[in-house]
From TrEMBL:
Lineage, opening ranks: Bacteria, Pseudomonadati, Bacteroidota, Flavobacteriia, Flavobacteriales
Keyword list, A-Z: Signal
Signal peptide range in chain numbering: 1-22
The name this protein goes by in its record: Cadherin domain-containing protein
Domain of life: Bacteria
Originating species: Flavobacterium panici
Length: 465
């Protein structure tokens, strides 16, 4: 009898103990959680982050999700609050692949989802390290950004560009809504390089256009590259530029002033002031800012001005300042040497900050953005001596220095309390204050640049060192 009583209580205790275990969480039983990964194939690369995305849900409440890649030492647990219960969660977790892994490696990503009732569900996704993430590169041959198409000469617009991509090109598209251009070239065989070359006819009326080039590659997760090119179709030149760089120079690497914008314009008569820093200085006139093509004015074999990319340079025989007049329609130009009469800002390098203006000696530094060490306070401009400009010993009208640019820049070259000061506005024009307001913003690659402020020309030249 005692034995039977003992067995009864033992069975009752076991049932009670098991019941406590089953309800240990304090939550009733529920269905298993669900998980839907956004993709079963995830691409990464050494030293690059990839994203794990999944939609988690449970009819009662989620407790946690664990993310594991043992080979990459990843074991991340994300726990969820239970008051209130969380029934759904959009997982978005980024992880950087160690730099020492190989591009041929592949791994399993394991997700372990637990709900508040203790139900556990596992899900896996594949991680490959041979991912390709670069958009197709688009290199314009013609037209270049800001190209001028002179309708009085021809209304034909050749469009020529090259697309390159390591994983192969799916298609390229050329669009210009204003011209009714919407052309897609679907490529076969996954070529890694493709050249587009076609000529379009423009209306005879002057207008500005935006040509948009798009290219898509054939990677498993496609990459798309886009390039927009602004074009000016006109019956006359809106601007001319004076270029003193050798033919073939990339005119987009410098920040400001190359090529140099004209000074005065009357109809199609353009006037420049220019400083030749040596004898036999070679120059051209360009109809566009970013390239020598399509309009490059130089000399033919007879010494006459021509609009021809193959033309030779105009020679300014001796060092000094010139007044240059040119008409791109009549193809006539003159270059007359002159002696400046503007103020010379001498002894700038020995400036002195002083509240008493009579005891002050002028200095020229810079205020602005995108320039290392500079802000908009003239006291900062004074104390940051590396920003100070100095007199050019070879030209009393030029102040020179060296700046480190950090990106898009804008500037006013200034002394104490903005006296003296030259504001850098559009097209490299640097007017002495008081003058035109509105500092212009110039895109620039980070790096070290030479700076020349020409107070006679009221131009600034900021060129990559």
């Amino acid at each position: 009898m005692k034995k039977n009583v003992f067995l009864f209580f033992l069975t009752l205790f076991a049932i009670f103990f098991t019941g406590c275990q089953n309800n240990e969480s304090g939550f009733p039983s529920s269905d298993n959680p669900t998980v839907v990964v956004s993709t079963k194939e995830i691409y990464g690369a050494p030293s690059r982050k990839f994203e794990i995305k999944a939609a988690l849900a449970d009819d009662l409440g989620l407790k946690s999700v664990e993310i594991q890649i043992p080979e990459l030492s990843l074991d991340k647990v994300i726990s969820f609050a239970t008051d209130p219960l969380l029934k759904s969660y959009d997982l978005s977790y980024f992880f950087e692949v160690p730099a020492n892994r190989g591009t041929s490696e592949a791994f399993k990503i394991k997700l372990i989802i637990t709900d508040v009732s203790g139900n556990v569900v596992n899900e896996e996704a594949n991680l490959r390290l041979d991912g390709e993430f670069a958009a197709p590169s688009i290199t314009m041959v013609t037209p270049k950004e800001g190209a001028v198409i002179l309708l009085s000469t021809s209304n034909q617009m050749p469009v020529n560009f090259v697309v390159n991509d390591d994983s192969g090109i799916d298609y390229v598209q050329v669009k210009c809504e204003a011209l009714g251009i919407d052309e897609t070239v679907q490529l076969t065989g996954s070529p890694q390089s493709y050249t587009f070359n076609k000529t379009y006819t423009l209306p005879v009326t002057a207008a500005d256009y935006v040509l948009t080039i798009t290219a898509k590659d054939k990677f498993a997760i496609p990459n798309t590259g886009t390039l927009s090119v602004n074009i000016v179709a006109t019956n006359e030149y809106p601007a001319l530029y004076l270029c003193d760089q050798p033919k073939g120079t990339n005119l987009t690497t410098d920040a400001v002033g190359v090529p140099m914008y004209f000074h005065e314009k009357s109809g199609q008569d353009f006037e420049f002031k220019y400083y030749a820093d040596k004898d036999n200085k070679e120059i051209y006139f360009l109809g566009q800012e970013s390239d020598f093509a399509p309009h490059c004015f130089g000399l033919n074999t007879s010494g006459e001005l021509v609009d021809d990319v193959a033309s030779t340079a105009i020679i300014l025989p001796t060092k000094g300042y010139y007044s240059i007049k040119v008409n791109p329609n009549t193809l006539k130009y003159t270059a007359t040497k002159y002696t400046p009469s503007s103020k010379v800002w001498a002894d700038i390098a020995n400036g002195l900050w002083h509240d008493d203006e009579a005891l002050r000696r002028p200095f020229v530094s810079v205020c602005g953005g995108g320039i290392q060490g500079a802000d908009w306070d003239t006291w900062t401009a004074w104390v940051q001596t590396g920003l100070h400009l100095a007199n050019n010993p070879n030209n009393p009208y030029q102040l020179v220095g060296e700046y480190t640019l950090t990106g898009q820049m804008e500037a006013t070259f200034t002394g104490q309390w903005w006296s003296p000061s030259w504001r850098l506005i559009k097209n490299g024009i640097c007017t002495m204050s008081p003058g035109e307001n509105g500092n212009a913003k110039y895109p620039a690659a980070a790096g070290v640049y030479k700076v020349v402020l020409d107070t006679e020309l009221e131009r600034v030249f900021i060129t990559k060192k």
